[in-house]
Amino acid sequence: MSQTSIKPALITKVIPESIAAEIGFESGDAIAAINGQQPRDLIDYQYICADEYLEIEVIDAKGKTHYIEIEKDYDQDLGLEFSTALFDGLIQCNNRCPFCFIDQQPPGKRDTLYFKDDDYRLSFLYGSYLTLTNITQREWKRIEQMRLSPLYVSVHATEPELRSRLLKNSRAGKILEQIRWFQERRLQIHAQVVVCPGINDGISLERTLLDLAKFHSGEIPAVASVAVVPVGLTRFRPVEDELIPVTTAKAEEVIDQVQEIQAKVRYTSGTNCIWLADEWFLIGRRELPPASEYEDYPQIGNGVGSIRHFISQFEAYVKEFLELNICLSTQRKLTWVVGNAVEKAFVAIANQLNQIEGLEVNMIPLSSSYWGQDITVTGLLTGQDLLEGLQGRDLGEGILLPSVMLKQGDNLFLDDMTLEDLSVQLETNIWPVAGVEELVLTAVGDRAGFQKEIAN
């Protein structure tokens, strides 16, 4: 585990009209202690702040220390955002998984792209996956005492030797013992299995899924859900690795195998806990399952049902929109860029957008030459891919760009090209859009006006 000493929590944003705003907190201030305690991370901060009386030690941007007393409702948020969720440093990963995306990137990009974390706190706060191999006894105790559940765990295989081989870590074979630890304490995990053809597929995959399904029982199942995900490979991966890409035939094989296991689990428990990522159906050229198959979408953040959910939301929203019989005051032509993996699934969406009178949206699906992928999900498209795929085309008034291509809270693509640079080189407007409503309202060009009309 690689951690540094606890640093003051640097404030990057003060929410308007919040307690912190009323008191006079400013961006650039830092919290050194609350009620005499130094918070290690956002979890500590939230726990300590769940009190009616707070005495906060604050260091302002000039380095001067202030002491502030606050009385509030015990569950009332102060209204502060910080530069990081971890004030004592990142728990780094010491595994050497051959399929790790961090190791499949070119050198020379921004430092944050190469951070390999295995931090249970980021798993609890944001749903990132960890392996449980880098947790000390002290941290296990904290997970239990603070009831940090659910966590998101990369399992990959339950056979001890196979999991140790996949993670290249001798401690990795304890996974079933660790899941029992969660079960005994009525804590939960969401599991992930990245399938590597020829390594953990076939009989090994069946064993892994059936082992995990055994923990999906009781009022609080230790394994809340399992996502089965295809390995993703790029042209930058180490040449000596043993991995091979998932073919259409392999995707079809895995879909058939997992669906058979799903049926067994449903028969014995009355519910499902095993889910196939959307990519299997895209690679295997199969129809996506209906929305009803995904229950409450427990692994949507891992690409399980996200396309079906988006389509369902879009259909409901656009139906309401079209019922208003809105006609754009001027003709509007736009380009909507997506990864070619979703081309077939999103054709109907583009067609529905074009039912809005006065609007023409041209969907352009792209693959990634940057990563060396023939089939590419939208979130992996880079600025270079867009430049190569769109240069010289009629883009209309501009591009509707799914914001999943960009660094969260920033305008950087995965190849470090900025949104502004791409816009200049393509000589067009680019509008990042997140979600169904933003896509439609940006396309029609009057977010505020149409939002108000729909609300009424």
UniProtKB/TrEMBL annotation:
Residues 72-217 form the Putative radical SAM N-terminal domain. Residues 11-48 form the PDZ domain. Residues 229-433 form the DUF512 domain. This is FeS-containing oxidoreductase. It comes from Trichodesmium erythraeum (strain IMS101). The lineage of its organism: Bacteria, Bacillati, Cyanobacteriota, Cyanophyceae, Oscillatoriophycideae.
